[in-house]
Amino acid sequence: MSLSLDEVRHIAKLSRLELADGELDATLAKLNGIFGLIEEMQAVDTDGVEPMSHPQELAQRLRADVVGETDRRAAYQAIAPQTEAGLYLVPKVIE
Question: What is the pLDDT of residue 95?
């Protein structure tokens, strides 16, 4: 698939891009290059190829799920202006 200059102008208008006449040719060449690459990739036979989560066979380094911080809720509640039943009370802002 290749685009024409009119199609590039239309795409630029839809995407709200202002392209000068000199930029249209360069943009056309870049877009046609992208479409050419897509056509090449679609031509590759991928039947029987399993999807991969990563291009290399790497093992995920995992750490132990351990609590690293202490519970400071009581300290934070003590300095709050107003609390009730473990909740912070805030003034009403919408009438």
Answer: 79
Does a structural domain hold residue 52?
Answer: no
Range of the domain at 18: 5-42
- Is this structure's pTM higher than 0.70? no
Give a yes or no: residue 9 inside a domain. yes
Domains identified in the chain, total number: 1
20: in domain: yes
Q: Which residues contact 84 (CB under 8 A, 6 or more apart)?
A: none
Reported residue count of the chain is: 95
Calpha distance 10→25 (Å, rounded): 14
Q: Report the chain (95 residues): mean pLDDT per 10 consecutive residues.
A: 88 92 91 94 91 81 87 93 93 87
CA distance 76 to 72: 6
Residue 82 belongs to a domain: no
Contact assessment for residue 82 and residue 89, using Cβ atoms and an 8 Å cutoff: yes
